[in-house]
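Lecture notes, unit on protein representations.

Consider one protein chain, 195 amino acids long.
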Amino acid sequence: MKRRSVLKGLGLSLGYAVATPSVLSLFQSCKTEPEVWVPQLLSFEEGVLVKNLIDIMLPKTEDTPGALDVNVPEFLDLFASKVYNQEQTSEFLNGISCIMEELPITDLGVSALKKEDYQGLLNHYLRIKKEQREIYLEEENTVFFALTNLRDFAVWAYKTSEHIGKNILVYDPIPGRQQGCVSLEEATGGRAWSL
């Protein structure tokens, strides 16, 4: 695998991960009812697509809420509309458009797609072997990069949401002493740190 291209891709996809207080306040403002959400940047159809993909990527489980429960799609749309520059916005929207072109959308629109349609797309581009991933990287496949960035962006937004950060992950706003060489199980009961 070409380390430089992977690192470059990671750097680009994680470039938005620099959380500032204003970004966190954007997340706080995304507490809307899912039925009432009107996307700021995305079209309605694109909003439905993003919601359905993110719901499959980060579903609700018995122990944890899903991405839809903490308004991740709403945050992603608001973040992209308020924080992205023109080039980033264009790249984001182009990626969403390319994803839509890969799906079997009929005249009934995105709402008529079934979970299997989204699942098939994710299996084709994200649940792949290393060799296929390298091919997509070398080809600079737009759908692959768009889905990878959407997944990374959604995971970041999910982990930085207030509910997940405080109630699911380990949260300590005033950390104590540093303990090196301690297992995660011993330090936090096996849970990851929120900050």
